[in-house]
Design goal:
seven-stranded mixed beta sheet, Rossmann fold, Ribosomal Protein L25, Chain P, alpha/beta, elongated, binds magnesium ion, binds adenosine-5'-triphosphate
Length: 555
């Protein structure tokens, strides 16, 4: 996969340039460090493109490391999906696949080292008490009564924690820093807790697990990461990160750099909340095409190139902001416009009988596969006496700006002929069920020898010589721009999925495979769903043709 083009510069790349120029580093090592507690989402893609993109452009290395310190919430399924998604985005960690859990023994020894230096202690306050003792933004905390235990006692207690002698919650290991530090993170943070649960990788080897802050900085150091790039909410944790490394790890230390996380309008980004959508059956799974997960976007028809392009173009900054969802769709359309073969599909069919076309005759008409790509060539599509057009392309009493089919009016059928509507057939309830028309045999290919013009071109398929398909149309899952606020019930969009069972698509789509993408002429981009089979075709609408973002830019 081609991800070779260099990404635009940003303040992180400027720091790296300086570090290379000054000789501080010769080779750049970054990492993408997910916690395997859910599927990756579009926010993670920003971080992946940033970290792997830097490694690619600087000839460095990017590690994939699982920060797997929370055994209760983590699963093998997530580890596998994360690897699949990073690869799908077009990145490769080579041999550099790591797990923080592989460092558990080393981390334990570093904790022992901290104790020996008198910089960590075993505390028996309850979680609630620890919270009370911590103080607030305006008030200093209070020292734990266990803070001044001797090194020997701490070593003994910590070892017994490891051996499983104590109940969960009864003991923790804490760093001994400063209970009156202005930065609350530095008020004797917990480094280890007791959890009597098996870990998906280490099994029952451990009943104490290191906290994220302790694990993360040391894992970076162990892997010789040069630039440890993370999101802004870890800014306060940087002091602790540096403090831990300062005490127990030899130089050089990784440099933590924070950037603003991606927020997208109408999109929920927290794995915890996405899990809730899955568990409550609000969506069909992590890969539901309405989900902002990479697996959901993939199923919806997004391309990795479009997502990489989006990540490059939104850039990297220090200020939190909200990116408009229509910009992601804009990047997607740019890519799909280049790469998607065109085809015709009628989502809500209305039959048209062409009365002067010979009964039983079928002819093959030539159609262009992709006007953006001459190499894509042409295909043949059958034309016959009975065809389908889109219901919305016909009106009995058209208003002024409606140029499509209406009684007495002539329009062009794409790649075919001019037709004129001669009659309209209703059912008993007064619904239009069929249109009668005539065609002009002289207009084959879509132009009239006498030079007369029509104002509209419609897509169509032959009635018999086409295939039935199920089409799934999607809209935002939420009705509010910022779904991180408000109760789920209040903000869910009840119309986020509409299923059309009776659509008709070109005969040429008989052998499509899940993941195949098309532009349905005049409608939008569509992708074959994994539920699809030759006897029951299923397409997802990836994105409509209308580009609201680029319209906004032109105003
Ligand atoms: P979530 O809250 O969605 O679970 P997280 O930060 O807890 O996200 P991690 O698995 O810890 O999830 O994330 C792995 C990496 O992805 C981290 O370095 C994190 O900073 C980055 N990341 C997560 N969400 C975003 C986002 N919205 N924009 C940019 N980077 C993100
Ligand atoms: Mg996290």
């Amino acid at each position: 996969m081609d991800t070779k083009t260099n990404s635009p510069s940003n303040f992180i790349r400027n720091i790296i340039d300086e570090d290379l120029a000054s000789g501080k580093h010769k080779a750049i090592v970054t990492r993408f460090p997910p916690e395997p507690n859910g599927y990756l989402h579009i926010g993670h893609a920003k971080s992946i493109c940033l970290n792997f993109g830097i490694a690619r452009d600087y000839g460095g290395t990017c590690h994939l490391r699982f920060d797997d310190t929370n055994p209760e919430k983590e699963e093998i399924e997530y580890i596998e999906s994360i690897q699949e998604d990073v690869r799908w985005l077009g990145f490769d960690w080579g041999e550099h696949l790591y797990f923080a859990s592989d460092y558990f023994e080393q981390l334990y020894n570093l904790a022992v080292e901290l104790i020996k230096q008198g910089k960590a202690y075993v505390c028996e306050l309850s979680a609630d008490q620890i919270r009370q003792y911590r103080g607030t933004l305006t008030e200093p905390g209070k020292d734990s009564p266990y803070r001044n235990r001797s090194v020997e006692e701490n070593l003994d207690l910590f070892e017994r924690m490891r051996r499983g002698e104590f109940e969960e919650g009864s003991h923790v290991l804490r760093a001994k820093i400063d209970m009156s530090a202005a930065n609350i993170v530095m008020r004797d943070p917990t480094l280890y807790r007791i959890r009597k649960v098996s870990h998906h990788r280490t099994g029952d080897a451990w009943c104490i697990y290191p906290m994220y802050d302790f694990t993360h900085c040391l894992s970076d150091a162990i892997e010789s990461i040069t630039h440890s790039i993370c999101t802004l909410e870890f800014e306060n944790n940087r002091a602790l990160y540096e403090w831990i490394l300062e005490q127990v790890y030899p130089q050089p230390h990784p440099r933590q750099i924070e950037f603003a996380r991606l927020n997208l309008s109408y999109t929920m980004m927290s794995k915890r909340k996405l899990l809730e959508l899955v568990n409550e059956g609000i969506v069909k799974g992590w890969d539901d095409p309405r989900m902002p997960t990479l697996s959901g976007l993939r199923r919806r028809g997004y391309t990795p190139a479009a997502i990489r392009d989006f990540a490059d173009r939104i850039g990297v900054s220090k200020a939190n902001s909200m990116v408009d969802y229509s910009f992601l769709e804009h990047c997607l359309r740019e890519d799909l416009n280049q790469s998607s073969p065109r085809t015709m599909a009628v989502l809500r069919p209305l039959k048209v009988v062409i009365e002067n076309y010979p009964e039983g005759q079928v002819e093959q008409l030539e159609a262009v596969n992709n006007p953006q790509d001459p190499k894509a060539g042409t295909r043949l599509i059958p034309f016959a006496r009975e065809i389908y057009i889109e219901q919305e392309d016909f009106m009995m009493d058209p208003p002024k700006k409606f140029f499509r089919l209406a009684p007495g009016r002539e329009v062009r059928l794409r790649f075919a002929y001019f037709i004129t509507c001669t009659d309209v057939i209703y059912d008993a309830e007064g619904n239009i069920v069929e249109i009668r028309a005539t065609y002009d045999p002289e207009t084959k290919g879509g132009s009239a020898p006498d030079g007369r013009k029509v104002k509209s071109t419609l897509h169509w398929v032959a009635a018999e010589q086409s295939l039935q398909a199920e089409i799934r149309l999607y809209d935002h899952l939420f009705t509010t721009e910022d779904p991180s606020e408000g109760d789920l019930e209040d903000i869910l969009n009840p119309n986020s999925l509409e299923v059309l069972e009776g659509a008709r698509v070109e005969l040429n789509l008989q052998d499509v495979q899940p993941g195949d993408r098309f532009q349905f002429e005049r409608i939008g981009y569509f992708c074959v769903d994994p539920d699809s089979s030759p006897t029951h075709l299923v397409f997802n609408r990836t994105v409509s043709l209308r580009d609201t973002w680029s319209k906004l830019q032109q105003k």
